[in-house]
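Newbie here. two chains, one complex. Structure please?
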Amino acid sequence: MVKYVAQRVLLMLMTLLIITFMCFVLVRMLPPAELPLNDTHTQVIEARREAQGYNKPYLVQFGIFLKNVLTRFDWGVSDKLYLGQDVAEIFISKLPATMVVNLYSIILSIPVGIALGICAALKKNTWIDHTISTLTMVCISVPSFVYAFIIQYILSYKLGWLPFLMKAGTDYFSWDMFVSMLPPILSLSLGVIAGFTRTTRAELTEVLTSEFMLLARTKGLTKMQATVRHAMKNCMVVVLPSIFGEFIGIMSGALIIEKIFAVPGVGNLYINSINGRDYPMFMMLTVFYTTVSLLAAIVVDISYGFIDPRIRMGSKK
Amino acid sequence: MNNQNYEHIPQEMFQLAQRDANIHDTKLETKSRGYFADALLRFRKNKSSVVAAFIIGFLILYAIVAPIISPYTIKDKDATYVNYPPFIEGIANLGIGIFDGSVVHESQNETQLAYWRGIAEETGMDPVIGIVGTHETVTKFRGQDRVTISYKLKTNKYYETGIQYRVLSYEEFEKIQQYQNETGVQVIYPYVESKDIFDLTNPNIWYKVTDTRGTPELDADGNFIPAYSTNKNMEGAEYNSIRIEGDDGSYIYSIKKSGAVQVRLCYYNYYKYVVGHEPMFVFGTNSMGQDLFMAIGIGARFSLVFAVIVSAINLTIGAVYGAIQGYYGGAIDLVMDRIADVLSAMPYIVVATLFQLHLAPKVGIVPAFLFAFVLTGWISMAALTRKQFYRFKGQEFVFAARTLGASDWRLMFKHVFPNSLGTIVTSCALIIPGVISSETSLTYLGIINLSDFAGTTIGTLMSQGQTAMTTSPHAMFFPAIFFSLLMISFNLFGNGLRDAFNPSTRGLED
């Protein structure tokens, strides 16, 4: 198991390094952002660029970049959006908003999703199942910005229950803040709920028809006991890893939702850095998003082995 | 039992059972059904998928037909009719509450009611559709209760626009007069000097007012008193056309304005003069003043064509790549899989951005966009093909073909590939909505702007609608509903197709 994990992590680091290198070269090949004349930051940025090895071969530049990142966590300075400020600092200041919103969203959506999935699986082929399955399908197909619009229009505008945009400020745990976060939380949740409902339903229906369930009932367990003790356990083999994956993913902000609801988070920063052509920022966020998605994939894969002994045995070969 | 022992049975007693007939299997009485026929049959059983297929057909038809039948083109941008709600004059006149260009105004007081009445009386088009609600507020005024009534009104935004000031050249002014003479439609209305109406600049006030808020001065019968200018010294150009009712020939219809004339014109009628027909926006207009009915069609055309091209390219690349991977296996498979892994881990937004920055100036924005989709898009196709190849390559018919001396290439594409074709092609139906969705999100975010090439896209329309969401929700609503329908039906259709082509689910759904 340890060997397997080490293998996967090494492979991930390799992938990450290659992607970073490709993006890095492509970004550095672009002409660097023009700096405003007569600005105090201009000289600083130019000095920093000199130190980062602009105009040297790309491999040398990449070496300097890696060294800076690994030794001092120095990702360069923003040269467009936040002139002269440290990219890493801005990024860290944006992280809490994203994490709080995403955390609330998964706390809300995972139980709801699993509960709906169980409900649909137990009542298979009744109107309850059909309703849940149809809604799930709709939520998965329709992209998030459509229901962000519906939520904003109905809850915020027509009924006036919720504010349009997220409140500014850093008091992430105050009640006002929570209320103002509800629209993005809801918009984010719908997709996650739908995903969990679908997985749980599919998995549970399969488990419920298997033979050990029949055996459990034959030996005298009630339907409730059999479902909770045997079916749920097996169904969770698939559901739990994706929960871990979700938790890793809370750091990466949803791009569109954050933009619509003005969440001062990472996703918003990413879009701004792309639209504003702020390359150092773009570079850092690209590495960040790639890392998070790779990490989530690894955690999902490895946790299968931790949860289910059968899979652990299989990995030995 | 009568056991008899026959010891010597004479040979003559034996008879051959089948002397003449050949022994062979009897032919099956039932009709045989091929793979595709079977899949089609099972697909048809899935009601929701069939409905989805029809909806897709309808949406495609819409995308083809709507821009043709709409009287507008993507280049028609109206500066006044911006974010105006759906309106068709013929249906609006029926008064059934649809296509009436209606907007709701909250808390309107008497002065504003008079303002609407003013427009109705001057242009002959009553903007007020109906009073939705009244609200009474009681306030204490010098010790006495004073009741103020405010109304919630539903008005026609097209009629409500009423009169506008416009500066016209002399020729234009002449032409409009000619048009008026030919059609009898009053476009130009008598001029009102702002000094006569408390320096108000609202072109819709043509009556005498008593204060700067525009409270009208009424005569004994409760009618408006016109404040039209009769000052001949101000007159910009000779006016020889139809005059409004009650004009004894003394009103002036234009004033001088540095080499041109300024007039008050009824925008609705002016629009008819310019465009040749009355405004007809089935889905309303967007923030660019474009007809949404047509714009959605234009955007959908691009999305659909683009998605089909991307899927076709991805299918080809993915099939070849996956075939090589799956057929040879081993080290080749491992290396190729790593390459695919690295590419698939790149966030697509990064790929799209970088391709746009690097390639778009050289090869144009759409090819760059296409490359971005192809770069990572083929991976899922390759994975699918690889799986299918692993499934089939060890089977007897492949060995047989190999024994007969077939080359690798022939084995791959003559023997294995056709067997996996069904699965691969059906997955295309699930890739198309994915491409449309990503394309729409990117244009919605404004990361890629395709308006120069495609005219507009659904994503662009939605981001334009988003900005004016509260005042004109229709501008977001119609593109969103179109897009959602497209997504839902494509997913339903794709799922149905996949299930139908998957032999292992056969008989399960019954």
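Moderator note: Chain A has a mean pLDDT of 85. Chain A touches chain B at residues 11, 15-16, 18-19, 22-23, 26-27, 29-30, 137-138, 140-143, 145-146, 149, 152-153, 157, 255-256, 259-260, 270-271, 274-275, 277, 282, 286, 289-290, 293-294 (CB under 8 Å). Thread marked as resolved.
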